[in-house]
């Protein structure tokens, strides 16, 4: 295929291969032949909002011409400059029109994040290190086991570490190779040591020993024994690949096929523009976030400028060092896009599926194709709306069709299934499913722990939390920043008052505009919710501001002591929502650099601290104070929710999904139910189940049942013999009631 | 079909038609020819738990013989004895073995609940009443409109009413008949009067006038105008049936068909025994609750004795009398079973569906068949568990198959879609979907209100709450009452402590046994949850008690002033959970009689007050105090959750579903993920979408896209020209990284 980019790519379109190479070459040229470069990621730099908005408005109104002013097309090139004793991480911004590096970020000495390619090197560096061999000499593995190391981001430093260079740590396991199956699960065989590598020198600097005790045991590892310790003598396997299971697979789960005989109802353009029903948006895909929705419209009205999953932190609650360093930021430390699974038809989604590839970056800067990292499809989600007229018994019922944008990331042992769902009633749902293998460590057999749960003898799954942050940049029927406001709505019970509330049933719906960047905690006792509103446009019927409301699950926030490292690094995870002032490029709830951080820098807490506000003020400083802090801005909403995961045995060896959803629902944005025009068409492919479903072994009535596919609990109603009735019924009532028995409650009765 | 009941019905089986008639006849005989009877409901009386348990244990262990002692087979006959001046409501209990009435409840003078059959009578009594005609003479309806009255339970009395007899009230609307469509929606035309009927005399006793003002207007209705008031002059229609819509139906929603080519994976017996995968349970259906699950087992181990939706209250927050009486208890006042829709194939569920009929009762006591009131089917719910081995890129992924027991009730304007879902991982989910038409009243055109939202000019949808109660009677691997305990589990953050928590990342999981009947409020800050445990059986691996945990949404409780009628009648709705001591027949969160109640009698609050306890005690009184209050019992758990519904315009004219789910999940009940044996079979019916999905009109690359059904955002990656590279890359690293690029994050990269 010839490398010809579209002459004028959409400003939000991902880089073309030609652009990708152009950006790479500009950076290579910048550094010249004297420096070695490790390319981490090359991707489009989103335009400044102020520059993009006029373009989008022209596009939406059909006024886009060749003369429409376009934002500069810029690529961001994330790369390391590698020197003999150290590496520096730099972001270069390449103007793709000129082919020149426009700006370069300040160099960062520590490990910015870890890439897949770095892991294998780490594994080998450990295995070949004398330090590691020496540490392993404490243990004897069973015959046929080999070492298998999961690299982990280093997390926060130890108390005695200052200004550390690039570190990486590993969790060490053994793998049973006797079954000659590469997918044998090593997570059932943890080895209680943690190697730490200096990534600059690619040498191990130490191997930490881990405590393996139970309740009442010390936090410190046991004194090294003189005798070699035999590991895993009584361990059970923990296989999950079907051919290694020690239980038979179920054979009685008959297929469910989801068929779209006329095809799907959506279209996607090569540059990511997706249209489905009245929705229209652009799909982005970034190394850090995975799939992102841009420029989301419903029925030609803007709803969202950008929606994304922004960050997640997973601190483990085992107080024994070095487990304080077991705190992943799965976006900042690794990246959901980099970690995205190549999805497979008939596995990750059912039905008629469209897959989207993305470009990623090779270490030499070449673009490569990550296949099928996002899947798009429609699905049925039960009833959308229904009403039965009890007088006629006529029901009108529509189905809840959803359009799903799904991607899945594997972070070593663990998986996240993330999805955006748009529905026919104008709502957006963001869903997280947590699955995969819980992270474990060694525990002396027979002991139990206050820090987790024993999954199988010798294996402790540590208590931990997953705290997610979603970033919502609203555009409620307008792309004008000044139109955007956030309101806190609460419902308050009221005391009896003879004048205003004589019976006490009244409750008051209170509104409070968010005037200034802040955090907001959930308060379900007040039904506290956030409304993303247009400050200037009112609903013509209700007179209320056009709005979308955010309905998020009320979950526990970060439990770590606010004074400790885990909390200092994850300020975002301490409140259920944040409202911050928009600034270009501020996409990260926990800040740009999370790995090796000791506190959250440039995250939502810092954004709040600078004091942006959202409404007009009489005072000066509309453009911020002398230091540029605090200015009139448009609000960005961050929704934080999560799972306190105290593992249960049922999570082993691979856990069933734990699901969370947040909903963004129109609230006086439309003039009626936007799904009232959904046809209540009967699905003709549905079938009545008869014989095979109803026939249980030993059911003597099988043949009768086959003729009556509907089960009558205890048979059909016979007619009653009036002569058997010993008492009069109220005849007038009875007659009237029989006549009117297709009654209020809708069930059409049929007297046989 | 001959009327021959199975000789020995299962004790939990619904009544056979023959049993139904036998019970009816016994009651008719009891009253003799001198009394008129109105039969409300005839259904099976569930056996006493102490008598049923030995039977079930014999059944489960395969030891059931003809000699196994069976509980008495008893029918409950709910009926009115109608006299000239009043009616009395009585429950008669008929022993079906003897055919005799065993016991009779004390007569109840007030309206126990309303039945469908009573509604039409009410409508006619209003229309024909002079009082009503006189009230209506205040108003002039447009040509072609006729009156249409929705009967409502009377709710709590006015302040000046004591010892009222059987009352019913109505909400009055007008219906546009000009379109000659019986399903024209009258809810868009409310008339501000409320007729009240005395059901004993079947006469209207008064017609109340309703305030129609807005903010700052009085609570009282306006003084009656001298001039007739013309109604609905500027009203817009609010139709929802497709042929009356003023917008065209969507035509671009292509069908989704759900096909089970090999049939379904479940069986159902005529007596309600259902088996699906490793689940086994009995389906019941009662007039008040609708579908109920009994004797729920997984893999031959008991999980639940009984699970049911128990009650719901819907208080409206409009303080203007008589709206304090607008508080429905949809189970107690009406009954979800009585209100159950006749479900239709291809509408209420998709796929391969099995429907279940139920027997209901005619006013003369005859059984009649309510067709298709419950649907049973399997559905796919996305990914159940997945893990990708980053070293080999092999993914194992299973689908989340659910078995769904669904029923839908219509309560006048409103619909509830209720479902039990069992899954492959041993979890039970209870789901509520609220839909239908929001309840409205009149508002002067152009005004807005603090009590609700204007849906269309002149129509106010009042703020209200829906508070649901689910009843859970656990049987965690045992039917022995003494094995059952409930534990509150919380996760508590801990301060830094050099000895126990040096970095502050530790949190403590605390357990507290519920010793005594009590209520429990949600506390998401502590991740408070209830565990239903076996007190005496421990998991062999973790050492923890076998358990299921209850994961319920944290929602706002009842807002009404606790001193007022709405709250007094719905104590249950004021706390997120209740744990009460088991007593036979105590199934109702708000007590048996809710209609016309002034306080909750015999509901969860009273159950708590009597002081049952759940653990062995040294003290006396194991069988209660002198009054029989307080005894050693087994815990029953009630989960309360709900929706504060401040209507949005999008809820009009029929609202999109608002969904809540509570989950009951195994927690150290099994020895591993019970779904590890689910095959990760690829679904061969899924298809890759190409041309039709990707081809948008105007897409010049349509043909190219058709050849490449996967969208490459900006095309595929070309190879890079090494000569174009101006700087060296770190060759060793680059080589290693390329080799190992099937890296930690699972995405198999493909360099073209």
Automatic annotation (TrEMBL), chains A, B:
Needed cofactors: Cu cation
Textual note on the cofactor: Contains 1 topaquinone per subunit.
Gene3D superfamilies on file: 3.10.450.40, Copper amine oxidase, catalytic domain
Keywords: Copper, Metal-binding, Oxidoreductase, TPQ
Organism annotation: Trichoderma ghanense
Post-translational modification: Topaquinone (TPQ) is generated by copper-dependent autoxidation of a specific tyrosyl residue.
InterPro entries linked: Cu_amine_oxidase, Cu_amine_oxidase_C, Cu_amine_oxidase_C_sf, Cu_amine_oxidase_N-reg
Protein name stated in the entry: Amine oxidase
SUPFAM superfamilies in UniProt: Amine oxidase catalytic domain, Amine oxidase N-terminal region
Domain Copper amine oxidase catalytic residue range list: 256-676
A family per Pfam: Cu_amine_oxid
Organism domain of life: Eukaryota
Family statement: Belongs to the copper/topaquinone oxidase family.
